[in-house]
Amino acid sequence: MDRRKHGAVVGLASPEKLTVSYVVRDARNNELLKGTAVVSAVGGFDARFTLPKTPNLGFTRVELSIAGESSYTHLQRVEEFRTPEFEVSAQASQGPFLVGAGGDVTVNAKYYAGGALAGAPVTWSVSATPTSFTPPNRDDYVFGNWQPWWGGGGRGDYEDYEYDEGPRYRSGRGGKRAERTSWNFAGKTDAIGVHTLHLDFLSMKPAMPMSVQTTASVTDVNRQARSASSALVVHPAAFYVGLRSVRPFVEQGTPFDLDVIGVDLDGRPAIGAKVAVSVSRLEYSYDDGEYKTKEVDPQTCPVTVAKDAHPCHFATKQGGTYQVVATILDPQGRSNQTTLTFWVSGGERPPAREVAQEEVQIIPDKKEYSPGNTAELLVQAPFYPAEGIVTWRRSGIVKTERITFTGPSKVITVPIEDAMTPNLIVQVDVVGMATRADDKGLPDPKLPKRPA
Number of C-alpha atoms within 13 angstroms, CB side, residue 250? Predict the structure, then answer.
């Protein structure tokens, strides 16, 4: 290709008159071979060469150039292939695995020709990350840390979670991320080619299930290394608490209804178990250069598990984001926790302190709809008063509607028709003026409003 002024790229006028020179160098910069390739009429070329039988292993460079003007370097890794001489397998002991107990993972190494790989070095890599677990036949309930199915934030947007001897689970604007924590161990296989790693599960905070991934790497006398992995789920307790709500948001002043169950690992009711359910509204405060959440207006609902679900009702005097935390205890005193977020119309959002495109949050009242249903969407604007455009999209824009925000949120309805199947996309675009924040992070109406 020929690069022109201002970055324009055009084809070569007579590419067949050009040749490409190449030089091949090994990982120690020794020249292995060189040659030329003819450029075709469409500007392409190909070159084939055979490496020496004993080159230095590592990255080999192929240096390409045209008439000494343009050059390019291609890297190719060269390694020696050796047929594997042994196999490795890993197997975890029989579960379930619970906090306060332990578990074993066993690696077994043996030669393909027969016989055990005895006395071989073994290196273990163990990592733990938060995971989810739903007891059998309980898919209609939430267990563990609930995440919105539409991709919005879960627990308060500025909360940090700490795990004892485990990963740190941090959330922030734009979603959550889990930082994996890992440990390394070393040992040797015994006379029958086996090595067992014992794990003690001491504590877990918060009390939610964890996925533990173990990988064992075995090295033989020829320095060949083979690996095998095994994963196990560690439960914080023998009981789980499940939460179920009709919808994820309600209008201000409308009670929020919740069903609570307690079950064992097989999904059977844990009759007689005690569950503490608490609800708090999340408020935002600006502290040490960032917005943080604090829980206010707490409400409680004590539950004793029975055969059927226990109903809880919570008042919603103020709009905003509410956090439900339910904790159950098993007979050994171990706790297990489930969290759920719901929204109440009319809640304020923290003001933005940076110049960035802010997001409108749309919260649907349920996951799926059928023709004839009416979908209700809670739309939370980052600022108000504001004007917005709602567009219904399916293979193009089907319908548009103008809406006005006189407060921080608004509920819109979408009648579902046959023509909308199998899916419909609803988009809301908002324009307006946002209140600026002072040095303490508080909205200051005296300051000129910021266009948004």
Answer: 18
Which value, to the nearest 10 degrees, does the dihedral of the CA atoms of residues 48, 54, 58, 59 take? -20
Residue 309 has pLDDT above 70, yes or no: yes
Q: Distances in Å between the alpha carbon of 10 and those of 14, 37, 450?
A: 12, 21, 46
Distance of CA 157 to the CA centre of its chain: 15
Residue 133's CB is within 10 A of a number of other CB atoms, namely 18
CA distance 197 to 219: 17
Residue 188 sits in which domain range?
A: 86-137+175-235
Q: Which helix (H) or strand (E) holds 427?
A: strand 425-434
Average the pLDDT over each of 56-65, 139-148, 188-197, 419-428 and give the range with the smallest value.
419-428
> If phi over 0 gives left and psi between -120 and 50 gives alpha, with beta otherwise, what is residue 193?
left
pLDDT at 167 over 50: no
CATH code (residue 66): 2.60.40
Which pLDDT value is given to residue 442?
66
389 inside domain: yes
